[in-house]
Amino acid sequence: MRNCIILVHGFGGTPYEMKKLGEYLKKYGFSPEYPLLLGHRDKPESLKDVKLEDWKNQLIEFYNEMEKKYEKVFLCGLSMGALLSGIIASIKIPEKLILLAPAVYIKKASFSLAPFGLMVRNKLVRICDKSLNPESYHFAPAFSVYQLLRARNEFVKKIGLVKSPTLIIHGLKDEMVKPLSSIFVFKRLKTKKKISFIDDATHVLTLDNKKEDVFKTILDWVK
User: Fold this and answer.
1) What's the total number of domains in the chain?
2) What is the pTM of this model?
């Protein structure tokens, strides 16, 4: 397989939430690659010293390795993974970009603490009540939530620089991120683009009851 798709998980999540999508795309000739973002799949406190720059550098290095290994590189991210993927795509030029529920407008009240993350650096705040990913953190240091805010701000500034054809997908029952986020991103993009809203789908689109609809929409975009 000479084409790969990099699948970037969300804040507090793990590659588990991207594996079903990767397995689906593998049947159609794609080699899925799953970076584990620094500070994840351990304990929430492991995030306390990780900065946005660390995630960006990690993903750029990972992307560079995939460029050496494969003929074409596709890039897909979920939630914060979508923000990071958009930032990376403003630097690199993936064959195509897929943004799943990009975390621009976050509903969760605890994220209002993000601007104060430097002052209450180590305070753990609840980031989700439940998740379809059993490996997800339910809490994270306030400092890490601040890094998510920084990722959001950089993504908003740079998404207009993306040159890759971009697909955006959002669930209309997303309990974490407002679907308005995807409309915002769609309007900012200056490249070939498509937006798709999935009825009855929640935040973790890749594990939800409508995941097959999501997978088919992605396949139609990348094939």
Assistant:
1) 1
2) 0.95
